Request: fold
Amino acid sequence: MNIKEEISKLISEAVKSLKIDTDGLSVAFSNRPELCEYQCNFAMMCAKRLNENPLNLAEKIVKNIKKNENFEFLAVKPGFINVKVTNKKLSDYCNEISNDKNLGIEQVKNPRLVFFDYGGANVAKELHVGHLRSPIVGEALKRVHLVRGDRVLSDMHLGDYGLQMGLTVLQLKEDGFLNEFFEKNEKTQKKCEKNAKNCEKNIDFSKISLKNVTLDVLNDEYPKASKKKDIDENFKKLADEVTLLIQRKVEPYYTIYQKIRQLSVLEILKNYKLLNCEFDYTFGESDAQSYIDDTINIFVEKKLARESEGALVVDVAREGEHIPIAKKSEDEPQRYKNPMPPAIIKKYNGGDLYATTDIATVVMRNEKDVPDEIVYVTDKRQETHFEQVFRCCKLAGISPEKQKLIHISFGTMNGKDGKPFKTRSGEVVRLKDVVGLLIDKASEKLAANGIKGDEELARKIGVGAMKFGDLSNTIEKDYVFDIEKFLSFDGKTGPYIQYTIARINSILLKAGCETTRSKDFMVDIKTNEEKNIALAILKLNSAYQISYDSYSLNSLCLATFELASAFSTFYNNYKILSEKDEKRRKEMLAICMLVKSCLEKALWTLGIDSVEKM
Reply:
């Protein structure tokens, strides 16, 4: 049952009976809920071209609407058509969706396979606060598509083959952590003497342990190497060479790389699990490596690639295209950068770049899964990179014409000072420290409510608070990480919604009834508070489509809060458990059950845990 569609159909039929084109006709929730539930401004929209008075036209349309016991239509100044929905219709809607596994969430008519690429952690680097938004946003967007009926796949897609690997391995080697791999002990020397040319291939490096290389060591070595490359040109050149050796699977560099990757991935997955992020694949740049040569050959054979200063590039700029430079003030004239720079697909030394591996990854995904859409979730600094990659894929036919390639770019998570969130000493905050801080703060809140020692509950509340605070904002904008505000049990916060669910759990437990609907519990709306709950559910179900279409979760967050708020008003105004009329008591309990199901579904979609108590 889609109430908005029913209303649209009735108005559309009336418009057609007047021999008027219905193009542009739409129905929306009323911004004056005290007057009506829905509104249509079609009469005002087309009155001028029809040379009609808007109010007169609205009255004609209303007069031609077929009589319907579920709705009341009224033409009002300056030309709106107001629509009131009866309590019976809202009750029927609530009872219908209570028995629907999708809870009334409209399903897509033509389900697609949508592939989500998010997470994007780099091997050998510790996850920090800058890695938070990609898994939070990506996981929620994936779940929105899943809830609406699409098939989905997700890939954490590690940065595991780039310069950071060459830098890390080189630094470990210089600091003596890899001596066992490079020192020619007696046994190794004899093997090399027998077959000097292929001695590396004859040594089983997999049996050599990296026991001295821990996560803490990696956390020290990479930053050290990263700083060194900026001041030591020779070190940077050597790191480039080591990166190339890893990419070409030259030993012992490749085995060292694999061991570091395995160590890092275990920690990355552990951190993402704390955020309720689940992946179908843990692929990385390395998995696309076997597709690189064939990918480059596609561009060469189609004469799309050219040599530039020893590198191989693809021109992706379009005629007359320039990139605007952000203005420093409103008075400053608009300036433009050069046209979109060419995409480099092979470096001067034969090495591969991010663009190369990302293009090859599209080749791999289209061979393995053939998705209808691929969605990348990264920070906005990578906008140009993905635009280049997408253009390359379309130019070369690597991505079919009908396949959508989408980049969702997000803003920065800032501190209260408006700058990127950092420690007091100016260092980037580690992701696990952020989660730890959230758990500690949530534990304090729970202790004040008499709940102590439940760290998992504190994690659910703390992480949920952060995720809701993040997703409540428009994705592309920066936002302020305000832990006190996020963890408030009042207002538009995750804990407020979790608390509403916990309150309903308590009501149902005390009522001694099942927490799921049965035919003994039917909604029968009689009060304004109950009507507002039904309308909030309608708006929530509409918000799924808005979030789906806009690739942003703020609409879903707001609608979820509004439902929780509507229920709180209902709870405060009526004594559900002490209601003496058994039929009326069951009707109110039916509302409790439905609200609980809808809130839990919404939180799950946002990647947030529901809780039994708070």
Remarks:
- Residues 33 and 44 are 20 Å apart (CA to CA).
